[in-house]
UniProtKB/TrEMBL annotation:
Gene3D superfamilies for this protein: 3.30.70.270
Catalytic activity as recorded in UniProt: 2 GTP = 3',3'-c-di-GMP + 2 diphosphate
Single GO MF annotation: diguanylate cyclase activity
One Pfam family cited in the UniProt record for this chain: GGDEF
Name of this chain's protein: diguanylate cyclase
Length: 369
Protein backbone atom coordinates (compact mmCIF):
# COMPACT_ATOMS: atom_id res chain seq x y z
CA UNK A 1 0.00 0.00 0.00
CA UNK A 2 2.83 2.40 0.90
CA UNK A 3 4.63 1.61 -2.34
CA UNK A 4 1.47 2.24 -4.37
CA UNK A 5 0.93 5.57 -2.59
CA UNK A 6 4.50 6.69 -3.28
CA UNK A 7 4.17 5.59 -6.90
CA UNK A 8 1.00 7.67 -7.35
CA UNK A 9 2.71 10.70 -5.83
CA UNK A 10 5.76 10.19 -8.04
CA UNK A 11 3.56 10.05 -11.16
CA UNK A 12 1.73 13.21 -10.02
CA UNK A 13 4.89 15.24 -9.54
CA UNK A 14 6.36 13.86 -12.77
CA UNK A 15 3.23 15.03 -14.61
CA UNK A 16 3.57 18.53 -13.14
CA UNK A 17 7.24 18.69 -14.13
CA UNK A 18 6.46 17.56 -17.67
CA UNK A 19 3.70 20.15 -17.96
CA UNK A 20 6.09 22.91 -16.83
CA UNK A 21 8.79 21.95 -19.31
CA UNK A 22 6.20 21.50 -22.07
CA UNK A 23 4.91 25.03 -21.46
CA UNK A 24 8.47 26.36 -21.62
CA UNK A 25 9.17 24.50 -24.88
CA UNK A 26 5.92 25.78 -26.42
CA UNK A 27 6.87 29.33 -25.50
CA UNK A 28 10.35 28.96 -26.97
CA UNK A 29 8.93 27.31 -30.12
CA UNK A 30 6.44 30.15 -30.55
CA UNK A 31 9.19 32.75 -30.25
CA UNK A 32 11.41 30.85 -32.68
CA UNK A 33 8.63 30.64 -35.28
CA UNK A 34 8.07 34.37 -34.87
CA UNK A 35 11.74 35.34 -35.18
CA UNK A 36 12.44 33.29 -38.32
CA UNK A 37 9.99 35.05 -40.70
CA UNK A 38 11.00 38.45 -39.30
CA UNK A 39 14.66 37.77 -40.01
CA UNK A 40 13.75 36.43 -43.42
CA UNK A 41 11.75 39.55 -44.25
CA UNK A 42 14.55 41.78 -43.00
CA UNK A 43 17.20 40.24 -45.20
CA UNK A 44 15.05 39.47 -48.25
CA UNK A 45 14.54 41.74 -51.23
CA UNK A 46 11.12 42.77 -50.01
CA UNK A 47 12.83 43.67 -46.76
CA UNK A 48 14.82 46.33 -48.67
CA UNK A 49 18.45 45.31 -48.25
CA UNK A 50 18.79 43.65 -51.68
CA UNK A 51 16.69 46.37 -53.31
CA UNK A 52 18.92 49.08 -52.01
CA UNK A 53 22.03 47.26 -53.19
CA UNK A 54 20.63 46.84 -56.73
CA UNK A 55 19.69 50.54 -56.95
CA UNK A 56 23.15 51.55 -55.75
CA UNK A 57 24.96 49.33 -58.23
CA UNK A 58 22.71 50.42 -61.11
CA UNK A 59 23.30 54.09 -60.28
CA UNK A 60 27.06 53.58 -60.25
CA UNK A 61 27.04 51.93 -63.66
CA UNK A 62 24.96 54.79 -65.11
CA UNK A 63 27.27 57.38 -63.53
CA UNK A 64 30.28 55.61 -65.04
CA UNK A 65 28.64 55.58 -68.49
CA UNK A 66 27.78 59.29 -68.14
CA UNK A 67 31.40 60.07 -67.25
CA UNK A 68 32.70 58.13 -70.27
CA UNK A 69 30.32 59.88 -72.66
CA UNK A 70 30.98 63.37 -71.24
CA UNK A 71 34.76 63.01 -71.05
CA UNK A 72 35.48 61.03 -74.21
CA UNK A 73 32.30 61.46 -76.24
CA UNK A 74 32.97 61.13 -79.91
CA UNK A 75 36.74 61.44 -79.44
CA UNK A 76 37.01 58.01 -77.85
CA UNK A 77 35.59 56.39 -80.91
CA UNK A 78 33.82 53.08 -80.94
CA UNK A 79 35.65 51.80 -77.86
CA UNK A 80 34.28 54.57 -75.63
CA UNK A 81 30.77 54.07 -76.98
CA UNK A 82 31.01 50.32 -76.42
CA UNK A 83 32.16 50.79 -72.81
CA UNK A 84 29.40 53.29 -72.13
CA UNK A 85 26.78 51.10 -73.81
CA UNK A 86 27.89 48.07 -71.74
CA UNK A 87 27.53 50.00 -68.48
CA UNK A 88 24.10 51.28 -69.50
CA UNK A 89 23.03 47.72 -70.31
CA UNK A 90 24.20 46.42 -66.92
CA UNK A 91 22.65 49.35 -65.07
CA UNK A 92 19.40 48.82 -66.96
CA UNK A 93 19.26 45.11 -65.99
CA UNK A 94 19.79 46.00 -62.31
CA UNK A 95 17.19 48.76 -62.54
CA UNK A 96 14.53 46.72 -64.30
CA UNK A 97 13.02 44.72 -61.41
CA UNK A 98 9.41 44.31 -60.34
CA UNK A 99 9.89 46.01 -56.98
CA UNK A 100 11.04 49.28 -58.58
CA UNK A 101 8.36 49.19 -61.29
CA UNK A 102 5.55 48.68 -58.79
CA UNK A 103 6.69 50.98 -55.99
CA UNK A 104 8.32 53.93 -57.78
CA UNK A 105 6.61 56.00 -60.50
CA UNK A 106 9.90 57.25 -61.90
CA UNK A 107 11.13 53.79 -62.82
CA UNK A 108 9.25 53.21 -66.12
CA UNK A 109 10.04 56.65 -67.68
CA UNK A 110 13.67 56.26 -66.62
CA UNK A 111 13.91 52.83 -68.26
CA UNK A 112 12.37 54.22 -71.44
CA UNK A 113 15.02 56.96 -71.57
CA UNK A 114 17.73 54.35 -71.09
CA UNK A 115 16.23 52.30 -73.94
CA UNK A 116 16.34 55.30 -76.24
CA UNK A 117 19.92 56.16 -75.28
CA UNK A 118 21.05 52.55 -75.66
CA UNK A 119 19.59 52.35 -79.17
CA UNK A 120 21.32 55.58 -80.15
CA UNK A 121 24.68 54.38 -78.88
CA UNK A 122 24.18 51.06 -80.69
CA UNK A 123 23.90 53.07 -83.95
CA UNK A 124 27.07 54.98 -83.08
CA UNK A 125 25.23 58.20 -82.29
CA UNK A 126 26.24 60.27 -79.28
CA UNK A 127 23.48 62.67 -78.13
CA UNK A 128 24.33 66.25 -77.31
CA UNK A 129 25.39 67.00 -73.78
CA UNK A 130 22.06 68.52 -72.86
CA UNK A 131 20.13 65.55 -74.17
CA UNK A 132 22.67 63.13 -72.67
CA UNK A 133 22.25 64.70 -69.24
CA UNK A 134 18.49 64.31 -69.45
CA UNK A 135 18.69 60.69 -70.62
CA UNK A 136 21.06 59.63 -67.82
CA UNK A 137 20.55 62.11 -65.00
CA UNK A 138 16.84 61.41 -64.72
CA UNK A 139 17.41 57.61 -64.18
CA UNK A 140 20.28 58.46 -61.79
CA UNK A 141 18.00 60.79 -59.80
CA UNK A 142 15.31 58.08 -59.80
CA UNK A 143 17.79 55.52 -58.51
CA UNK A 144 19.00 57.93 -55.83
CA UNK A 145 15.39 58.44 -54.78
CA UNK A 146 14.96 54.67 -54.61
CA UNK A 147 18.11 54.31 -52.52
CA UNK A 148 16.97 56.94 -50.04
CA UNK A 149 13.52 55.41 -49.76
CA UNK A 150 15.02 51.96 -49.34
CA UNK A 151 17.24 53.28 -46.55
CA UNK A 152 14.20 54.79 -44.85
CA UNK A 153 12.31 51.53 -45.21
CA UNK A 154 15.27 49.59 -43.95
CA UNK A 155 15.52 51.84 -40.89
CA UNK A 156 11.78 51.42 -40.30
CA UNK A 157 12.00 47.65 -40.61
CA UNK A 158 15.06 47.62 -38.35
CA UNK A 159 13.36 49.68 -35.68
CA UNK A 160 10.23 47.58 -35.84
CA UNK A 161 12.26 44.38 -35.73
CA UNK A 162 14.25 45.61 -32.72
CA UNK A 163 11.07 46.68 -30.92
CA UNK A 164 9.31 43.37 -31.64
CA UNK A 165 12.39 41.42 -30.66
CA UNK A 166 12.62 43.31 -27.39
CA UNK A 167 8.94 42.70 -26.70
CA UNK A 168 9.18 38.99 -27.43
CA UNK A 169 12.39 38.68 -25.42
CA UNK A 170 10.56 40.27 -22.51
CA UNK A 171 7.73 37.76 -22.97
CA UNK A 172 10.19 34.87 -23.03
CA UNK A 173 11.97 36.22 -19.94
CA UNK A 174 8.74 36.73 -18.00
CA UNK A 175 7.34 33.38 -19.15
CA UNK A 176 10.55 31.57 -18.23
CA UNK A 177 10.64 33.33 -14.86
CA UNK A 178 7.04 32.35 -14.18
CA UNK A 179 7.70 28.74 -15.14
CA UNK A 180 10.84 28.78 -12.99
CA UNK A 181 8.88 30.10 -10.02
CA UNK A 182 6.17 27.51 -10.61
CA UNK A 183 8.89 24.88 -10.72
CA UNK A 184 10.18 26.10 -7.35
CA UNK A 185 6.66 25.98 -5.95
CA UNK A 186 6.15 22.46 -7.34
CA UNK A 187 9.53 21.42 -5.96
CA UNK A 188 8.68 22.85 -2.53
CA UNK A 189 5.33 21.07 -2.49
CA UNK A 190 6.97 17.87 -3.68
CA UNK A 191 9.70 18.12 -1.04
CA UNK A 192 7.10 18.69 1.68
CA UNK A 193 5.05 15.73 0.50
CA UNK A 194 8.19 13.62 0.18
CA UNK A 195 9.21 14.38 3.75
CA UNK A 196 5.72 13.60 5.00
CA UNK A 197 5.76 10.37 3.01
CA UNK A 198 9.24 9.48 4.32
CA UNK A 199 8.10 10.17 7.86
CA UNK A 200 4.99 8.03 7.38
CA UNK A 201 7.12 5.29 5.83
CA UNK A 202 9.62 5.39 8.68
CA UNK A 203 6.82 5.25 11.21
CA UNK A 204 5.24 2.32 9.38
CA UNK A 205 8.57 0.52 9.21
CA UNK A 206 9.16 1.26 12.88
CA UNK A 207 5.81 -0.20 13.86
CA UNK A 208 6.36 -3.16 11.57
CA UNK A 209 9.75 -3.76 13.20
CA UNK A 210 8.19 -3.39 16.60
CA UNK A 211 5.57 -5.94 15.66
CA UNK A 212 8.36 -8.42 14.86
CA UNK A 213 10.35 -7.77 18.08
CA UNK A 214 10.02 -9.03 21.60
CA UNK A 215 9.73 -5.87 23.73
CA UNK A 216 11.47 -7.42 26.78
CA UNK A 217 14.64 -8.83 25.17
CA UNK A 218 14.76 -6.97 21.87
CA UNK A 219 15.13 -10.13 19.78
CA UNK A 220 12.72 -11.29 17.09
CA UNK A 221 9.44 -13.01 17.81
CA UNK A 222 7.75 -16.05 16.29
CA UNK A 223 6.56 -14.07 13.24
CA UNK A 224 10.06 -12.73 12.62
CA UNK A 225 11.45 -16.28 12.69
CA UNK A 226 8.92 -17.38 10.10
CA UNK A 227 9.66 -14.38 7.84
CA UNK A 228 13.44 -14.86 8.08
CA UNK A 229 13.19 -18.54 7.11
CA UNK A 230 11.12 -17.62 4.05
CA UNK A 231 13.63 -14.92 3.14
CA UNK A 232 16.45 -17.54 3.21
CA UNK A 233 14.62 -19.87 0.84
CA UNK A 234 16.87 -22.69 -0.38
CA UNK A 235 19.71 -22.08 2.10
CA UNK A 236 20.89 -24.73 4.61
CA UNK A 237 20.01 -23.61 8.13
CA UNK A 238 20.19 -24.86 11.69
CA UNK A 239 17.35 -24.26 14.14
CA UNK A 240 17.88 -24.43 17.92
CA UNK A 241 14.99 -24.38 20.37
CA UNK A 242 16.22 -23.36 23.84
CA UNK A 243 14.25 -23.64 27.06
CA UNK A 244 15.22 -22.57 30.63
CA UNK A 245 14.81 -25.47 33.00
CA UNK A 246 12.38 -24.86 35.87
CA UNK A 247 11.85 -21.20 34.95
CA UNK A 248 8.52 -21.05 36.84
CA UNK A 249 10.29 -22.05 40.04
CA UNK A 250 12.91 -19.36 39.37
CA UNK A 251 10.19 -16.73 39.08
CA UNK A 252 8.39 -17.98 42.15
CA UNK A 253 11.57 -17.87 44.21
CA UNK A 254 13.05 -14.56 43.02
CA UNK A 255 10.11 -12.70 41.48
CA UNK A 256 9.26 -11.71 37.97
CA UNK A 257 11.73 -8.79 37.70
CA UNK A 258 14.59 -11.21 38.31
CA UNK A 259 13.00 -13.60 35.84
CA UNK A 260 12.95 -10.83 33.21
CA UNK A 261 16.60 -10.04 33.95
CA UNK A 262 17.48 -13.71 33.45
CA UNK A 263 15.76 -13.73 30.07
CA UNK A 264 17.80 -10.73 28.92
CA UNK A 265 21.02 -12.29 30.21
CA UNK A 266 20.18 -15.49 28.37
CA UNK A 267 19.90 -13.61 25.05
CA UNK A 268 23.38 -12.14 25.50
CA UNK A 269 24.79 -15.52 26.57
CA UNK A 270 23.37 -17.37 23.53
CA UNK A 271 24.63 -14.68 21.17
CA UNK A 272 28.17 -14.97 22.58
CA UNK A 273 28.08 -18.77 22.56
CA UNK A 274 27.16 -18.82 18.86
CA UNK A 275 29.78 -16.25 17.92
CA UNK A 276 27.27 -13.59 16.90
CA UNK A 277 26.39 -15.56 13.74
CA UNK A 278 22.88 -16.56 14.81
CA UNK A 279 19.59 -14.68 14.72
CA UNK A 280 17.73 -14.98 18.00
CA UNK A 281 13.99 -15.13 18.70
CA UNK A 282 11.78 -15.37 21.78
CA UNK A 283 9.02 -17.83 21.08
CA UNK A 284 7.14 -17.08 24.29
CA UNK A 285 7.71 -17.41 28.05
CA UNK A 286 11.16 -18.91 28.62
CA UNK A 287 11.50 -20.57 25.20
CA UNK A 288 13.96 -19.10 22.66
CA UNK A 289 15.05 -20.03 19.13
CA UNK A 290 18.28 -19.49 17.25
CA UNK A 291 18.63 -19.58 13.45
CA UNK A 292 22.10 -19.95 12.00
CA UNK A 293 23.86 -20.98 8.77
CA UNK A 294 24.44 -24.73 8.96
CA UNK A 295 26.05 -26.75 6.18
CA UNK A 296 26.23 -30.06 8.03
CA UNK A 297 25.11 -31.81 11.19
CA UNK A 298 28.44 -31.30 12.93
CA UNK A 299 27.94 -27.51 12.89
CA UNK A 300 24.50 -28.01 14.42
CA UNK A 301 25.82 -30.24 17.20
CA UNK A 302 28.65 -27.84 18.01
CA UNK A 303 26.14 -24.98 18.30
CA UNK A 304 23.88 -26.96 20.68
CA UNK A 305 26.79 -27.99 22.84
CA UNK A 306 28.19 -24.44 22.93
CA UNK A 307 24.92 -23.00 24.27
CA UNK A 308 24.57 -25.59 27.03
CA UNK A 309 28.25 -25.26 27.99
CA UNK A 310 28.03 -21.46 28.12
CA UNK A 311 25.15 -21.60 30.57
CA UNK A 312 26.98 -24.08 32.75
CA UNK A 313 30.06 -21.84 32.77
CA UNK A 314 27.94 -18.80 33.65
CA UNK A 315 26.78 -20.54 36.84
CA UNK A 316 23.77 -18.32 37.38
CA UNK A 317 22.17 -19.20 40.75
CA UNK A 318 18.79 -20.94 40.73
CA UNK A 319 17.61 -21.21 44.36
CA UNK A 320 14.75 -23.57 43.57
CA UNK A 321 16.32 -25.87 40.95
CA UNK A 322 15.36 -29.52 41.76
CA UNK A 323 18.52 -30.89 40.20
CA UNK A 324 21.21 -28.39 41.17
CA UNK A 325 22.13 -24.91 42.32
CA UNK A 326 22.47 -23.12 38.95
CA UNK A 327 20.29 -22.29 35.95
CA UNK A 328 20.40 -24.94 33.21
CA UNK A 329 19.10 -25.19 29.67
CA UNK A 330 17.45 -27.81 27.50
CA UNK A 331 18.22 -27.51 23.76
CA UNK A 332 16.78 -29.28 20.74
CA UNK A 333 18.25 -28.76 17.28
CA UNK A 334 17.62 -29.64 13.63
CA UNK A 335 19.28 -28.99 10.30
CA UNK A 336 17.05 -28.20 7.28
CA UNK A 337 16.85 -26.38 3.97
CA UNK A 338 14.82 -23.20 4.22
CA UNK A 339 11.36 -23.64 2.75
CA UNK A 340 7.79 -22.90 3.89
CA UNK A 341 6.81 -26.56 4.27
CA UNK A 342 10.23 -27.74 5.45
CA UNK A 343 10.23 -25.19 8.28
CA UNK A 344 7.07 -26.57 9.87
CA UNK A 345 8.59 -30.08 9.88
CA UNK A 346 11.94 -28.80 11.14
CA UNK A 347 10.32 -26.91 14.00
CA UNK A 348 8.35 -29.97 15.07
CA UNK A 349 11.53 -32.09 14.91
CA UNK A 350 13.52 -29.63 17.04
CA UNK A 351 10.64 -29.44 19.51
CA UNK A 352 10.58 -33.24 19.86
CA UNK A 353 14.35 -33.25 20.45
CA UNK A 354 13.90 -30.57 23.11
CA UNK A 355 11.29 -32.63 24.96
CA UNK A 356 13.46 -35.72 24.80
CA UNK A 357 16.11 -33.74 26.70
CA UNK A 358 13.51 -32.69 29.27
CA UNK A 359 12.31 -36.29 29.62
CA UNK A 360 15.89 -37.42 30.28
CA UNK A 361 16.47 -34.93 33.12
CA UNK A 362 17.12 -31.62 31.33
CA UNK A 363 20.47 -29.74 31.26
CA UNK A 364 21.52 -31.09 27.87
CA UNK A 365 20.89 -31.11 24.15
CA UNK A 366 19.76 -33.38 21.36
CA UNK A 367 19.28 -33.07 17.58
CA UNK A 368 16.67 -34.56 15.36
CA UNK A 369 15.45 -36.57 13.78
Amino acid sequence: MIRAMLRRRYIGWLWLSLMSFTALMLLITYETRWVHPEIHAYFSQSGNLTGQQLATRSRRYLEESLGILLEEGGEGGGDALERARFRIEVGYSLFDIGLYRSDYACTVPSLQRLDTLYDALSRGQVPAHSRLSQDLLQPIRCLTEIEMDQLDRRAEVTNRFVAETHRHQTQVLLGSLMIYLLGLVFWGMHERKRRLADRATQESLHWMAQALRDPLTGVGNRSALHDDVLADHGRPLGLLLIDIDYFKQYNDALGHPEGDRLLRELVALIDRALGGDARLYRMGGDEFAALLPCDDRQVLEQACAAVVAAMREAALPHPDHPGGADVTLSVGGVQFTADRDAFADAYATADRALYRVKAQGRDGWQTGP
